[in-house]
Amino acid sequence: MEIKVELTQNPKTKPASDHLGFGNVFSDHMFIMEYTEGKGWHDPRIIPYGTIAYEPSLMVFHYGQSIFEGLKAYKTDKGEVVLFRPDQNMKRLNESCDRLCIPRIDEDFAVEAIKKLVAIDRDWIPEAPDTSLYIRPFIIATDPFLGVRPSNTYQFMIITGPVGAYYKEGLNPVKIYVESTYVRAVVGGIGAAKASANYAASLRAQMVAKEKGYTQVLWLDGIERKYVEEVGTMNVFFVLGDEVVTPELNGSILPGITRKSCIELLRSWGLKVSERKVSIQEIFEANEKGLLREAFGTGTAAVISPIGELYWNDRRITLSGGRIGELSQRLYDDLTGIQYKKKPDPFNWVTTVK
Ligand SMILES: *Cc1c(COP(=O)(O)O)cnc(C)c1O
Q: Which domains are delineated in the chain?
């Protein structure tokens, strides 16, 4: 399929590279492609970023049949533009498609679409340290129809925008509220898919945690409220003595690409990484025994987010003396080093945009 290109006649003013937020500025162009039953995916095109008119009966507005992805393009010191494991994002997109009854997309074609869009808007990739171009592919159900069934038509879109650090705190430790009332997902639900609806389900707990002065929620399993699942928009790791522990992918946890990359890096350093069930009780007990050395979240947006404090049922613990743990720092340096091509890329994770 050939991607048609219509370039903007009104390029926007780009924000200063050293004053970037996250998710509030969008580049000049977007990618869009249609799905029609019987015809498959068709009409891929890159057009100026802008509003789209829809009927209010659009299925996505009512039943939330919508999934997304998130990855970044980086500009290296040499001015080269690279992506980090985009094949993994498109593989996961299709896994989300399967769960939400959305027709699959050709993964290689989708990666090509991302590359083409990024190449067109390459001047939007900021150059200040730790900045990047955030890429948001997503699919929505577009039948104008009320009634619960999978849609017969969809749109796949990709938008991008320059971003700075995800957390205002930067690589400083964040305060985490362990949530015992609300749950994000349950096994058998859609927690393992990157479905928009998972975020709708998370808002209330996030709001309450914010009011109490916490940055993010740590989710426990939806049945026993006992086992750690993940942290808001990130997977979570704990360093317990010599063991690095992260919850196993049990069907309600999002299989993060940063998570997977961290596991691969940690193992390549000769460290013991266990993907297993880990209860919040175990974490607090490990802390009492002096075994809880550090904890951190992993995700594309923040890369590594050290956890400085955990609050659970009126108990509060401070980790790594409220500072960045040794492994958190090393993972951050190595991952971002690979992403910006400042370090060797032994796993071939980085791919160039021509
Ligand atoms: C996207 C996401 C993550 C992190 O995944 P990455 O591929 O590492 O960016 C973790 N948890 C949830 C709920 C997510 O949506």
A: 4-163 (3.30.470.10), 174-339 (3.20.10.10)
